[in-house]
Design a protein that fits this description.
Blueprint (H helix, E strand, L loop, with lengths): L1 H16 L4 E3 L4 E4 L4 E3 L1 E3 L9 E8 L4 E8 L2 E4 L8 H4 L6 E3 L8 E9 L2 E12 L3 E11 L2 E13 L5 E8 L2 E4 L4 E3 L3 E2 L5 E9 L7 E8 L7 E6 L1 H61 L1
Parallel strand pairs: 2-10
Antiparallel strand pairs: 1-4, 3-8, 5-6, 5-9, 6-7, 9-10, 11-12, 12-17, 13-14, 13-18, 15-17, 16-17, 18-19
């Protein structure tokens, strides 16, 4: 009987004095920049009296280590602007941290330290912040010794992380094909805020007999279905310019022809009137001469 009682006491002491169990979010937690994040942290010692509970969230990156949020004995101290924890969640053993409008520089290791008197436990995990690229397309003209060359340029700006792929496709007569020639992609540039930018261009050729569209395809981890930017080729616009010029030249030539016709008509009319006047004068002279002869 005494041995059984001793075993029960040992079991109770072990359960009361055992380590605090803490669970944190799985890493990496991937978040898009400018979106909200919930960093999960739970402990298996719920305490309705929060005066016996304290939670400290810290952030560590390659360049800094700092506190993000402190909860101690019922008092909240948010260090990071907008960060929140909730009393009703803490009473249920939930010490999760809410972060609104996450930025790229907040990528790093987050540590959840939980104190439930007299125990302490902490767990760490990593949050990765990605930035979607801004994609735009423009037309460029480069003068060379052989004339003017036309290009389409696809600019991919302010993305993170660095790995990215930019490809060109051509849609002609209803057929889509990958363009492997006449294109070039510059080296990736690092921006001052730690994001990256890159540009790719493709040379276009003028065509008169077909409609050709070029498409810039961007593949990045933040774009789930990839991103396609479509633009009419410069080649299609070059003939249009020629057509406009041809129309103007044709209009000028037509105007010249009309002018010549009007001029010829006026000349012919005047010539006819002059001829008639001369004929009238000649008739008058002949009549006068006949009268003189009779006299």
């Amino acid at each position: 009987m005494e041995i059984l009682l001793f075993c029960v006491v040992i079991i109770l002491f072990t359960s009361l004095g055992g380590p605090l169990e803490v669970e944190i979010f799985l890493e990496p937690l991937e978040v898009l920049a400018n979106e909200d994040a919930l960093l999960k942290c739970k402990y298996k010692e719920p305490e309705s009296d929060l005066s016996h509970v304290a939670v400290r969230w810290t952030f560590t990156s390659q360049t800094a280590k700092k506190d993000v949020y402190i909860f101690n004995g019922g008092k909240h101290q948010p260090i990071r602007n907008g960060a929140k924890m909730f009393d009703n969640a803490l009473q249920k053993g939930n010490a999760s941290l809410y972060l609104p409008n996450v930025q790229r520089y907040e990528e790093g290791t987050y540590t959840c330290v939980v104190f439930v008197t007299p125990h302490k436990e902490e767990k760490s995990s990593v949050m990765q912040v990605s930035v979607q690229p801004k994609v735009s397309m423009s037309v460029q003209e480069i003068s060379t010794a052989n004339g003017t060359e036309h290009f389409l340029q696809c600019d991919v700006k302010e993305f993170y992380p660095k790995p990215i792929k930019v490809s060109w496709f051509k849609l002609s007569d209803g057929k889509m094909e990958y363009v492997s020639t006449s294109q070039s992609t510059e080296d990736i540039v690092t921006n001052s805020d730690g994001t990256f930018s890159v540009s790719s261009k493709i040379k276009t050729e003028p065509t008169w007999d077909e409609q050709t569209d070029y498409r810039c395809l961007v593949e990045h981890k933040t774009i789930f279905d990839n991103f396609t930017l479509e633009a009419d080729s410069v080649a299609d616009k070059i003939p249009a310019v020629y057509q406009i010029i041809g129309g103007i030249v044709g209009f000028i030539l037509c105007a010249i022809c009309v002018g010549l016709c009007v001029g010829l008509c006026i000349w012919y009319k005047k010539s006819k009137e002059t001829q008639e006047i001369r004929t009238g004068k000649d008739s008058h002279k002949d009549g006068a001469m006949q009268v003189t002869d009779r006299s």
